[in-house]
Every structure is written in C-alpha cells, then in structure tokens.
Amino acid sequence: MTNYVDFHRRSIDDREGFWGEQAQLVHWHEQPTQVCDYSNPPFAKWFVGGKTNLCYNAVDRHLVDRPDQNALIFVSTETEQEKIYSFRDLHAEVQRMAAILQAQGVTKGDRVLIYMPMIPEAAFAMLACVRIGAIHSVVFGGFASHSLASRIDDSQPKVIVSADAGMRGGKVVPYKHLLDEAINLADNKPARVLMVDRGLAPFAKTDGRDIDYAELRAAHMDTVVPCEWVDATHPSYTLYTSGTTGKPKGVQRDTGGYTVALAASMKHIYMGEPGETYFSTSDIGWVVGHSYIIYGPLIGGMATIMYEGLPIRPDAGIWWSLVEKYKVTVMFSAPTAVRVLKKQDPAFLTKYDLSSLKALFLAGEPLDEPTAKWISEALGKPIVDNYWQTETGWPILAICNGVESAPSKFGSPGKAVYGYDVKLIDESTGEAITEANKKGVVVVEGPLPPGCLQTVWGDDKRFVSTYWTSFPSKQMYSTFDWGVRDEDGYYFILGRTDDVINVAGHRLGTREIEESISSHPAIAEVAVVGVADQLKGQVAMAFAVLKDASRAANADDARKLEAEVMKVVDDQLGAVARPARVRFVTVLPKTRSGKVLRRAIQAVCEGRDSGDLTTMEDPAALAQIKDLVTPA
Ligand code: AMP
C-alpha cells in the first residue's frame, strides 16, 4: 500500500504527474493538453484542452459494462414509493428531460434553475443540463420566495424546473406558490417553468410560461440527445451559499476538474466500487447532494439511493433497513442526523443486517465526540469524519483509507486530503504556523485542487476579494474556519471566523436572517447569532430592538410579535432559517464605533465569559441579554 504522506506530498510537488494520472479515471472525448494552468492566480484552470461531459461519465459510460445494474434507487417514505432505475433507464429518462429542455431553447451555457424536492426528476434535470452543456443551479427546496428570487436574479435562468410539492413528516409542503411569488419578486423572469406534478398539491398555472413535464415527456419518449462535449473548464453548475454579506454567492464549478476530483475521491476516500450501493442522506439542494448523491457514486459506477423522508419515519430503523435491502456499502450522513437517531431506541441499529456496510462518513458540521463514539459503538463500523465546504465540492480534510488505512481520532476530520496544501495561518501576523496545537485560520495555498470553485458566478472580483485577500502576500484561500493541527498532522476544526452559522449541517448567514427580520415594520435593529445546541449543533438566536418598545410590553405581546417575526423569516427565507427565539431588547451591545458585538452576545447566550468589553458603548445592553437568556 502507498504511504499517505508521500501520496499527499506528490499531489502538491508533482501536480502535473499526480493529477494527470487521476485524470485517467474518467472518460475524455479529447485528452487535456495541460494539467493545470495557474498563470493567472488565484484562478486555476484544470485539464486545459480536454473535452468531456459530466453526464457521459455518470451515465453513458456505464451502458457498456452495466446497463441493467441499479443506478438510481428512489425511496420515499413520505409517498410510500420505491422506484429503481437501471443505467439504461436513467440514460433514457435523462435524454427525455434533455429533449424537453432543448425544446424550450436551452442550449450550452444557459442556466436552468432547479427548485425541487428529492424526486428522481430532480436528478434527471441535473444530469440533463450537464448533458447539453447547460448550467444548473439547484436551490434547496426548504428555501422560500426571497431566497429563491435572489438566486433567480443572480443566475438568470432560461427555464426553472420545479414540482407541485415536497413532503416532510407526512405533511405536504407546496412549492409552486413560493416559486410564483419568487418570480414576481425577481427582475429576471424565466421564459418557462417546467412543472412535475406529483398530484400532491393543486397549483395555479401561468399561461405561456408554465409547462407540464408528464405531457412533454410523453412527446419525447425516444428522442436521442447526444452529449455535448464541453471544455474541461466549462461551468457545470452554480450552487449558492451564504457568506458574511446578505447576498448569497454562486459557487461556480467546472466540468473536467470536478469529474476527476469526484472519481478520485470515490477511490481514495470513500472506497466505493462499481456495482455497489452508495447511500447519502443529504439533499440535492446542498453540495453533498450534488457530489455524493448524484455525480460521485454514478461516476464510480455505483447505484445511489435518493431518499425522501425523515430518519425516524416510519421508525428509526428506516435507514438501516435500506442498508440491508440494497446492500449499501458506503453511507454518508451528517452529525445532526446521528444525534436525532441517538435519541431513539438503539435496538433499531441491531435489527438489520448491516454486514455490507464498510463505513459511515459524516460531514457538514463538527462531529462531537459523544456522537461519534455512540454511533461507532452502535454500528461497529468505521466512522469517517470529513471536512469540506460548498466551495470545495469534495473533502479538504479526511482519512484517505483508500490510499493507506489510518486510525481516526475523535473530534478530528483527519489530515489534509491529497491536492490540498492546507496550512494554518496566524491571524495577526499572517504567517504559517508550524508548531503543533496552535490555533490558526485554516487556509489552502493556491492553486486549489481540481473540483473546487472556479470563481463566484458573474463576479470574479468577489471571488478574489472574499477568499483570497485575507493574506495578501500569499495566494491563500481562506476557509473561514479556525483550526489546530496536532503533532500527527490531524486537524481539529474550531468554528467559523465569520458570521456564518451551521444549523443541523445547513450553512446560514446571520446577515441574511437579520435582513429578513429587519423587513418587519416593527423592528428597528436586530442582531442574530449562532448559539450551541445539543441536537442541531447550533441554532440562530435573534435579539431585536423595536421601533416602539411598548409593542412587547408584556410576555403575551412579546410572544405574539415573536411569532410574527418568525413568520416573516419563514415566508422570505424558509423555515430552515427561522431563529429558535426572537427576543426583544431596548438596545444592542455595540462598540463605541457602532459595531454590534455579536461574539459577546454569543458568549453570553452560551454561558461563557464575554471577553474584553472595554470597547463596549453601553454595558447594560449585554446585561439585558444575559437576563433574558439565563434561566430564572
Ligand atoms: P457548507 O458549505 O454548507 O458545506 O459548510 C461548510 C462549513 O461547515 C465549513 O466551513 C465548516 O465550518 C463546517 N464543516 C463542514 N464539515 C465539517 C466537519 N467535518 N467538521 C467541522 N466543521 C465542518
């Protein structure tokens, strides 16, 4: 077996040789002529001169060796449906969807926004887009009209693909009215809205704009849509993520680098083999869903399970019953889901035959030691934490057991993954930290490896200024996470350096939530902070100053107003962004220069010392918050 230290070293020192070899894991219509063009840092162009297609690698390529093997296994415990598509079936469905999009005038480079629940048509739509060189932009189904409108305006899609509704916990969650409202709010209206009607929620149709998927599919049953061979650097998709400002960033991914990165990760990190089954419990609206529900497993010739439902319905054994039924070998979930399961009867974990399962991978938020220990003992399988971001598209830190097996350490996502020149930087000096166990900002020295963001959609300047200017003397990509590295090279992530919070593995910008709350007419000013939570990792807490303090004069009034404010957030951003509480104060703690002391508020909410407050304008402001959050 290869020595991992050497493997990693070579990926940095001999980038051309290393990635040139990894590139042979995928199909090229035309081979690249240059592995990496980094002549214009920090913009890295991978596999220049190469022509390929993401859909070809995920679907068509497998028609020779495994046409009748399971490719997409759809399971909905909400609608009680289970449907299996072989690679041959998937190929046919993707072409039908591609033909529908083409008939609406979608061509290479056009954007298609996908706002859908976890149904097979969402996967068809993603694959159909990349098949014809269109750029998809999936928006998480839990987002509401304002979030959706800002993404429509930024991506300017020609077509939006949506559905009547999703379902969650037995309840129908209608989508169409939110979409209609978003289109009303948006300046850039799509020409067409392609609707998949699941028969769950009746919806209004806009003549000339809304078209029906089932009808059009029937008209294109046998239409052949060849793959469009695109440059390796052609964008495959954009995916919006939160940052420090209220405006979400469109992370733009290429085609060739992403295909290679995923193919290599299936081998070196996830160790999934062709013919096996991969089960990621994420959602297509998030990066894990893109990389490891859809593209990664399919590129690797694996069947992938697409699951609509909760982890505890009909009971807490549902996921493990799927592992048994479909002989899942690789499973990917988030710590929050495990914490939910931890509250259930542990007997569910021993009820099913899990002998096929090789490992459970967890990512998206810090994996706390008690949760890691519990699941590792309960399952008796290796638990592999891995750390990454929407921006990177695949892990930055992990244990690459496919290269050389190594033990995991509780609380650590592992070591720097091959391709990533990870460093810790001292925030005050900007110098790299070489000694062990010293806290710094986790950065990656450029170029970023294949598969990572190429730029921020439509805004190269923002890409550079957001991620690359923190340490101007060096081309370093900042992750905006604090971390430490121990003497064995294992990293430990200590939380964000910015105002991004992580609720149940969902990344949210506190500024977006603040902007939404501020749109309620009664609110003068608000601060939102992330506060540690046993189940969700973090929850959002809002502290608002009212224009007229008498509106929250008594507890009943305050509760009523709190519910109103929460509804505003639900309607604009979606329930996923709803704060756990909205509390009313007369003043916010600020520095003398007027900056809200969010970290001090967070510390008080978590019962910690609020640190040095000598710059604080009005100490009573923090005392007010302390009184509110301290149990009587
Ligand atoms: P997202 O872009 O939504 O995937 O969120 C990325 C952020 O989630 C990272 O910058 C981290 O703050 C956090 N994160 C992701 N994975 C892990 C992990 N394994 N351990 C700790 N934090 C993580």
TrEMBL record:
Record-annotated Acetyl-coenzyme A synthetase N-terminal domain positions: 4-58
GO molecular function, one term: propionate-CoA ligase activity
Domain AMP-dependent synthetase/ligase: 61-447
InterPro entries with a match to the protein in the record: ACAS_N (IPR032387), AMP-bd_C (IPR025110), AMP-bd_C_sf (IPR045851), AMP-dep_synth/lig_dom (IPR000873), ANL_N_sf (IPR042099), Propion_PrpE (IPR012694)
Keyword Ligase: yes
Domain AMP-binding enzyme C-terminal as annotated: residue spans: 512-595
Family per similarity comment: Belongs to the ATP-dependent AMP-binding enzyme family.
PANTHER family in UniProt: ACYL-COA SYNTHETASE (PTHR43347), ACYL-COA SYNTHETASE SHORT-CHAIN FAMILY MEMBER 3, MITOCHONDRIAL (PTHR43347:SF3)
Name under which the protein is recorded: Propionate--CoA ligase
